[in-house]
Write a structure and sequence with these properties.
Length: 208
């Protein structure tokens, strides 16, 4: 009696969709599907309008924006940026591992990316609570109105991204549910969230 081929066993336990995904992993294609890219592009357009309005208002009262900006902790912004960059790297590695059929590694990297996202949320909550305790709230002035709005909308996107990564992880754990498309959708959305934060960080924390 010959030993069962572990790769063959894995494929047999997988759904036909997963088998097709594995067979096509080397072909060039648009990651995820068209719908998620339409959503991403729409979201980028909406955020771009927020950024333009922010810059127009900042030019109207640069002294107020500069004085208010100096109350923010640049170190916290840098740490959160590095955390999200690390999370993007982990999610990218998860996609590569899934395409190679290395599902344990894909799950490990997905969890690592999600934990980075959770850490980002906790640091952002700490930062908000610190500013609120100092009397810097949404109605304080135009700068803090934009600060809470931009970081708040972005935080919502991070939380939604964590839900999507949880779905990706659940599918990776179940051989009959694994879909390469879902892994790519999760990564596409997560990279968009990270890109948006880089712009928010630059405008709100860095640009003088």
């Amino acid at each position: 009696m010959t030993k069962a081929d572990p790769v063959a066993s894995e494929l047999e336990a997988s759904s036909p969709t997963e088998a097709r995904d594995i067979g096509q992993k080397s072909e060039a294609h648009l990651p995820g599907d068209v719908a998620v890219w339409v959503f991403v592009l729409g979201d980028l357009i909406i955020f771009s309008s927020y950024f333009i309005i922010f810059m127009v208002d900042r030019n109207r009262d640069p002294d107020l924006f500069l004085q208010s900006q100096q109350h923010l902790d640049l170190n916290i912004g840098v740490v959160n940026t590095l955390i999200l960059l690390a999370s993007s790297w982990c999610v990218a590695r998860s996609v590569v591992a899934a395409r190679n059929g290395e599902y344990q590694h894909a799950m490990m990297f997905t969890v690592a990316g999600g934990l980075c996202g959770v850490l980002f949320v906790l640091i952002k909550i700490y930062e908000w609570s610190s500013k609120i305790s100092q009397g810097m709230t949404l109605p304080s002035n135009h700068f803090f109105m934009y600060y809470y709005m931009l970081t708040g909308v972005h935080l919502f996107h991070v939380l939604l991204g964590l839900v999507i990564l949880a779905v990706v992880l659940a599918e990776l754990r179940n051989p009959r549910l694994r879909r390469m498309k879902m892994v790519e959708i999760g990564a596409t959305y997560w990279h968009m969230v990270d890109l948006l934060w880089i712009v928010v960080f630059a405008l709100v924390y860095v640009v003088r």
